[in-house]
Amino acid sequence: MPAGDRRALATARKGWNAQMIRWTHGLINRLVIVCDVMMLAASGVAGWVVAPYMNLPSLTLLQAVLFSILGIVIFVKLLAAGGAYRVEQYQMAGRQLRQILIGGVPAAVAVTIAFSAFVPDAAAHMDFLVVWAVIALAAVLVGRLVLVRQGMERAVQQAVLRRNVAMIGTIPKVTEILEQLDRSDDRLYDVVGIFLDDGEPPGPAEIGGVRVRGSVDTLFQAVQDERIDVILVALPWESTARINRMIERVHHIAADVVVPLDRNSFNPRFAQFATVGGLPSLR
Q1: Which end of the chain has fewer CB atoms within 10 angstroms, the N or the C?
Q2: HSE on the CB side for 269, CA within 13 Å?
Q3: 125-163: b (≥16 Cβ within 10 Å) or e
Q4: Are 206 and 212 within 8 A, CB to CB?
Q5: Could you report the per-residue pLDDT of 172-227, keeping only the tens digit for each?
């Protein structure tokens, strides 16, 4: 097969692999939305069931369903608008708790207003709303911190979400970033090789347990032979021209190109961010 055809085939295969990973991430995000909806819907039915035991026989099943739909729509829309439905976040318990509160509080306020407007003598039954909110919170927590986390653990173990990362840059910056990655418990990324920037002296055989595979020119051959999903540019933020040249060299490769942020050296006003192994990065 001619070299040009091999390169075209490798690029097409790489694009297909990247598309499959994005599709898998999107599917999991949608399943988490379904989980949130189902758990909140179950809490709505539970609220209707306990209502008679709290001296609230006037709450009908239709009202409970409508109140639940209102809360679900507001909750999901707020979380989606805030970028909460992302695979990288589902194993971070603290962040999920904050997101649940950010979506849950406005949803609870909206349901309280609707409850007060349509349920007779609603002011005398605010204790029921508190119990209903606790049930909803418990349901979402069970969904996120038990069901979703277990599902994510299975997905990580099966490596269906893992993305191969190639690092390009200088030895000091590569070493610094690898140390940060080692401190992270993110298992969605696997560094498969280090490719040194032009002008760098010959490095060691490996850095931080990751093989040094040559220069950036070697990367162009590597992407034809194996799947590389993310190219991480490990250059100092002070070297803006070098970063721009590096991105220009690799931007046509069918992979996400990201640059880890140095908060002391860069303060963007408008930028698109990504997270790689817990590292905030500029995409």
Answers
A1: N
A2: 0
A3: beebbebbbebbbebbeebbbeebbeebeebbeeeebeb
A4: yes
A5: 899 988 888 877 766 678 888 999 887 777 778 889 889 999 888 888 888 888 88
